[in-house]
TrEMBL record:
Organism of origin: Zhongshania marina
PANTHER family the UniProt entry points to: TRNA/TMRNA (URACIL-C(5))-METHYLTRANSFERASE, TRNA_TMRNA (URACIL-C(5))-METHYLTRANSFERASE
Protein name according to UniProt: tRNA/tmRNA (uracil-C(5))-methyltransferase
Annotated active site: C321, E355
UniProt keyword annotation of tRNA processing present: yes
One matching Pfam family: tRNA_U5-meth_tr
Organism domain of life: Bacteria
Entry EC number(s): 2.1.1.35
Catalytic activity: uridine(341) in tmRNA + S-adenosyl-L-methionine = 5-methyluridine(341) in tmRNA + S-adenosyl-L-homocysteine + H(+); uridine(54) in tRNA + S-adenosyl-L-methionine = 5-methyluridine(54) in tRNA + S-adenosyl-L-homocysteine + H(+)
Gene (name only): trmA
Lineage summary: Bacteria, Pseudomonadati, Pseudomonadota, Gammaproteobacteria, Cellvibrionales
Top-level enzyme category: transferase
CDD domains linked: AdoMet_MTases
Amino acid sequence: MSINPIDIDNYPAILQDKAQEVASIFKDLALPAPTIFPSQAVHYRLRAEFRLWHDNAEAYYAMFDPAEPKTPVRIDKFPTASKAIDDLMPLLLSKINSQTVLSKRLFQVEFLSTLSGDMLVSLIYHRLLDEEWEAVARTLASELNIQIIGRSKKQKLVLDRDYVVENLPVDGETFIYKQYEGGFTQPNGALNATMISWAKEQVKEKLDRDLLELYCGNGNFTIPLSKQFRKVLATEISKTSVKAAHENFALNKVSNIEVLRMSSEELTSALNKERSFRRLEHVDLDSYNIDTVLVDPPRAGLDHNTRELISSFENIVYISCNPETLHRDLQILTKTHAADAFALFDQFPYTHHMECGVFLKRRVQP
């Protein structure tokens, strides 16, 4: 069986209904009317992963319906994924099915692509990978012009590199990002560029002021926004993301960013002079003249102390992947700040998920 999980013709109506539903969550906060940013209707997702299901001598890509979690649904075409992934899937599967050394105990295939054409495929096995597998996989990588990683329990074989390179166009500039396998990246590349552009438009240019960014990831927002501020102080807890961020700063020739591997809670304690950290010995926190903070937290949103911290700054850019926790946080933040702009980014069409952006400015005290 082959499935097509998207209703292309009805996408505008589906988006409108979803946007109204999400906006209604915030009806008690008197936010501005949201600006709605649609996705491409097809080929919008730069990442995809599938089980590799074996049926006698043939293997095929499979997904599982939560209503029937033990029954594989065969996937022959996947228009949700980028066109590069969708085009590669049958070619790769044919190669896998033609060589036992590739298909034997292969149980998962993961794709990571970019808007600029790079492709990384992870083949995940229930067996130890040997020299024969590596030789055949290298030939496959060359034939398909892709990067390949082989994984099994406690084993990772990187044939060339374990990242893709994205060249992301934003407002007439191109930003370069290394995106590592297993590291967080925005899955909808075109909407990611739109979100960055929206954030840049909100904060304008403030070359005499500094930016604080919490949860900076691989520098996705950090690098474009750094051009609009004197300095940027950023935090991230993932080792992979911090490594990528440093490399991406170098690739983009950006030198005014300091990224710290620490949680937002820890930085809050440091800025409030409640704790000292050895990781901050080389950083003069008092030298920063921060008036704008950007947060892009996980689905759980912000903790109490971080909300208190960011409410002390003039401007807040809040990017959220969870409208419910965003609403909770805005109930508190709007006591000190007024929402100046509200945006909905449909990163995940045909699902209930919606990415939100809110720009808040400190209220003028009477």
